[in-house]
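name: query_chain
kind: protein
chains: 1
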Amino acid sequence: MTATVSVACRLPHGLELRLFNIVDAVESNALGEIRAVKRAEPLETTVTIRGYLEKQRPDQPMPARGSSYAITHGVDKEFFDKWLVQNKDHDAVKNKLIFASEKQDTVRGMMNEFKSTRSGFEPVDPNNLPKNIQTYKQDAA
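structure:
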């Protein structure tokens, strides 16, 4: 049996996770000069991680209420671990906007620990607008 993890994601749109193989290749420029390069080739398998604003589908669990995280259960652990290695410098990884564990209690604890983390995608509160942003007021005719 393959080990799985539950992935928490604090991005409203979720993520499509992909893995890449780095391969040796050659390329030429307009002058016909050839040089060796490394090229990332995507693997076929992708994993969709739910975002907290995703419309509900009957086959998906509800987003974690009140946490602004959505949980995607049953993600292949080996795939996710490889994705983390390949994306260790991704802002979502570094800022704890996406993380996983084999234990759901651990994921929920981390969600609670990082509940004040901001993604920058939060909706704007119309009653508390940032400076220099105003609502449009239509003149009465």
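note: The CA atoms of residues 22 and 60 lie 33 Å apart.
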